[in-house]
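Figure 3 (text version): structure tokens given as input.
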């Protein structure tokens, strides 16, 4: 064991044979089908990782192992609409409703295997799925949610629990700065909530590969670990 401090929060990191990536499947709620996912770590604090539209579940590997080493039971999900673009790059083509159901199926799975609390980290499209799942579920379903470069879906006023919005200052899409829409949704979301603006223009999970990556991981660890 060793002690690591992340932005003023100290966490005991526990290296464990159970921390490595294990492919799993679990059923969808109330309909035929299964969710493909990777499981990391062990313990009673669960976290769902929902990837962005240009990524896949394996893209969370480094972050999932860091969270597992910090004592979390982590599920990185693949959405049922995941496929490949014509150029062979990852793409996700499911509906918002299907994606939210996939997130909730992961929550149910974590509860079944012993998680007492479940949080979620969603990036871009995955953040929309996490927000939609949170807004349509009862309070307490999620302990807290992290929305990375995402406005959190269409009903920010219905989000529950603790909320952390993170985005790069100059992250743009075809409509302009993503910060503008995220700020509007953040203003509508009920407390408790926090908005962190990182420097640069990288979008969502691409931020982990920039000089803002260490701070991004630290902020997520701090948020999901604080009392």
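Below: residues designed for each position.
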């Amino acid at each position: 064991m060793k002690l690591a401090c992340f932005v003023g929060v100290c966490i005991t990191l526990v290296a464990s044979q159970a921390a490595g990536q294990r492919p799993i499947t679990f059923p969808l709620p109330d309909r035929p089908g299964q969710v493909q996912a990777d499981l990391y770590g062990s313990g009673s604090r669960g976290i769902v990782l929902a990837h962005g539209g240009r990524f896949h579940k394996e893209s969370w590997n480094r972050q999932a192992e860091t969270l597992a080493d910090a004592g979390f039971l982590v599920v990185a999900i693949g959405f049922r609409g995941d496929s490949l673009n014509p150029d062979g790059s990852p793409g996700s083509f499911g509906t918002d409703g299907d994606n939210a159901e996939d997130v909730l199926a992961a929550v149910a799975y974590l509860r079944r295997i012993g998680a007492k609390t479940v949080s979620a980290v969603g990036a871009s499209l995955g953040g929309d799925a996490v927000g939609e799942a949170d807004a349509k579920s009862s309070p307490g379903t999620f302990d807290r949610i992290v929305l990375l470069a995402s406005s959190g879906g269409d009903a920010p006023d219905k989000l529950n629990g603790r909320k952390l919005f993170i985005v790069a200052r100059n992250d743009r899409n075809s409509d302009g700065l993503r910060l503008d829409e995220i700020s509007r949704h953040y203003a509508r979301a009920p407390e408790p909530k926090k908005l962190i603006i990182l420097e640069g223009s990288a979008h969502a999970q691409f931020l982990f590969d920039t000089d803002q990556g260490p701070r991004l991981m630290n902020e997520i660890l701090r948020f999901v670990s604080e009392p």
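The chain has a mean pLDDT of 91.
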